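Human:
I keep going back and forth on a fold encoding question. Comparing notes only helps if you start from a blank page. Show me how you would write down a chain together with its backbone fold. Write it directly below this note and I will take it from there.

Assistant:
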Amino acid sequence: MAAKTEPNYLGDWLKFEEDNLYSRDQVTVASGQNLKTGTVVGIITATGMATQLAPSANDGSENAAGVLIGDVDASAADTPGVIIARHAVCSDKGLVWPSGITGPQKNTALAQLKALGILVREGA
């Protein structure tokens, strides 16, 4: 019997956010992506659209701008989504990083999130 893998849920990584949706912002996820909850995102400066963090880019998406709250399938078209953009506590265990991200790049992104008031803690 094959092992079953359970998907990531919001409660797996979001441990605290401010009341009245203060921590959240609506975004548009750029087409061509299928992103999961907990994905660290950047904002493309020219379009204002969210995309998975791209540390080696130079279009704005190299800067961590928040964490995607729910799964967003933007494979075929730009799609609305919601991010945690400020004043929250997240668990590092549920965050989704781009493949190939280096330790220094991840540390830079964590510092950028911290500057937004998004604290990433180790563990549950």
Summary: Residues 10-121 form a domain with the Virus Head Decoration Protein; Chain: A, fold (CATH 2.40.300.10). The two ends are 29 Å apart (CA to CA). The longest strand covers residues 24-29.
